[in-house]
Structure formats: C-alpha cells, structure tokens
Design goal:
With 139 residues, this protein is of the alpha+beta class. The chain has a domain of 97 residues: 2-Layer Sandwich (Double Stranded RNA Binding Domain), CATH 3.30.160.20. It is 37% helix and 17% strand. The strands form 2 sheets. A 3-stranded antiparallel sheet has the order 3-4-5, with helices on one face. A two-stranded antiparallel sheet has the order 1-2. The radius of gyration is 28 Å and the shape is elongated.
Length: 139
C-alpha cells in the first residue's frame, strides 16, 4: 500500500509500472538495461475517496491526461529501484498538491492616507516635468 495520508492509501495493484530504457547519455549500459519507469495511475478506477478524485480530475497538470490517467516517467537515476521509488514519491506529491485547499482571497482597498500619498507624489512628479518644458522668453 502506498500511503498518501494518514487515512488514505493506494494499493499497488492500482498502479501500473512499466520498465523502459532510459533516454540520453549513459554509455553501453543505457542500451541494455531498462532502468526508466513509466507509471500509469487511473484516477477514475482507483479506490481514492471521491474528494481526491474530483480534485485530481479538476487539477491543471500536464501529467494528467484528458481520460483521467496520471502518467509519470522517472529516469533520473541509474537503477530501476531508485526510479520506481522516485515515480511513486512524485505520484504522492501530485495527489497531495491537488488536494490542498487554498484560502479564499479577500479583496482589499488601499487606505485613504495611501491614496493621498500616491496622488501627492503624482502631482509633485507632474510639476517637476512641467518645469522641464521650454521657457517662454518673449516677455
């Protein structure tokens, strides 16, 4: 069981792991060993609580497909075991990030004193700029 929180856990049977060859440089080893992990997790078919499912399906993340499947590719490490652990940790952090409830923003207004200071600064700047203009020498 993969622990997401104190009360929520995902059985390993719901997580699909495929081992593939990693991309990039790595010498001869990269062509022989399937050390990268391709993780797939179906949100709709999982045993997660409905709250988690709804939050994940509405979460805007490129790793979640339109069908509601989380796809994570882990190939950072040279060993299959480390990549598997990395992929599982990234799945847990994605689920936790989707379920964070943000505080509602309270719109605020600037104080009267702050408004007055802003307008005074504007008028000072305006007077300074008018003094930079051409001088009338016809008098």
């Amino acid at each position: 069981m993969l622990q997401v929180s104190n009360k929520v856990a995902i059985p390993y049977s719901e997580i699909e792991l495929h081992y593939i060859r990693a991309q990039g440089a790595g010498g001869q080893n990269v062509n022989k060993v399937s050390s990268a992990v391709h993780l797939r997790f179906d949100i709709k078919a999982s045993s997660l609580p409905d709250f988690y499912k709804q939050r994940l399906l509405n979460f805007n993340d490129q790793r979640i497909t339109a069908d509601g499947i989380i796809v994570i590719k882990a190939q950072q490490f040279r060993t299959q075991d480390k990549n598997r652990n990395d992929a599982l940790e990234r799945l847990v952090t994605l689920i936790k990030a989707a379920t964070v409830v943000r505080k509602k923003r309270k719109p605020t207004k600037p104080s009267k004193a702050a408004n007055r200071r802003r307008l005074d600064a504007k008028s000072r700047k305006s007077k300074l700029k008018t003094l930079r203009g051409k001088v009338d020498t016809s008098i």
